[in-house]
Amino acid sequence: MASTAGYIVSTSCKHIIDDQHWLSSAYTQFAVPYFIYDIYAMFLCHWHKHQVKGHGGDDGAARAPGSTWAIARGYLHKEFLMVLHHAAMVLVCFPLSVVWRQGKGDFFLGCMLMAEVSTPFVCLGKILIQVSGQGRMREPGEGTGRGGTSRAAAEGSGPSVIPSMP
């Protein structure tokens, strides 16, 4: 959804600094509750996974492992970069895009949103790690997909983003 919004915004901007698109401000306001919800949903998945696996006691019974704070510490330890990314988007990027940007640079905001097109390939990489194990080589399509989608997003956003070849 973010990559589609980014494509629509960046292709509709003829002047890369001054053009505005209504979707750029609407999408950033939609993204804040999504990021907050996503942090909470990831925590609930982490909590339920530990509850089902029975990490709660020595007898192996399926119950929650200790306090909520212990679960939260384990979640932050495991998913620190993802939580940091979501928190930075809410606490830094949203205020910058709404207040400091003052309606300018919608083209560049669209280009940044198009980078999300590589997300399915990152998820595919995590799935392949779980399915095939750590010792085996992952599918080459995962890395090619990430690199290819990044390049396609850069090419789709226009000639001003891609450095010209001599």
TrEMBL record:
Q: Which residues cross the membrane?
A: 80-101, 107-129
Q: Which UniProt keywords apply?
A: Membrane, Transmembrane, Transmembrane helix
According to the record, the signal peptide region is: none
Subcellular localization? Membrane
Name the GO terms of the biological process aspect. ceramide biosynthetic process; lipid homeostasis
Membrane topology term: Multi-pass membrane protein
Q: Which residues form the TLC domain?
A: 1-166
**Record PROSITE patterns:** TLC
Name of the protein in its database record: TLC domain containing 3B
Native organism = Callithrix jacchus (White-tufted-ear marmoset)
**Gene behind the chain:** TLCD3B
